[in-house]
Specification:
InterPro entries: NTF2-like_dom_sf, SnoaL-like. This protein is α+β, with helices and mostly antiparallel strands. It is built from four helices and six strands. The longest helix has 14 residues.
Amino acid sequence: MTRTKTARELAETYFTAWEEGDFEVLRGLLAEDVDFVGALGTASGVEEALAGLRGLGRVLEKIDVKVRVAEGDEVITWFELHTSVAPPAPTANWMHVEDGKVTRIRVTFDPRGLLAGFERRN
């Protein structure tokens, strides 16, 4: 029998997979109708969410987790987002889990450094 991962375990796996560029693992963690809202955009459904993660993944260098707090089906991860185009961005990520899948994600950080970095690249 397969044990369902806790919200905390799902968040740990999510961030490890994203940092490693393992989008098949990420796909398995997200509900088909996952809803994402963040500082750089929104995504409805697993394909849009993966596209957003891939996009930022192109410049992602490291995710430095500072703390993760979980209570039931909710988990918040506080981390520094290290990219090749901007200084580290302190970031908060909230996830809601239902039936062993991430159904909602909200992310907040100051996007100015990343936006300026993307502008310099273009």
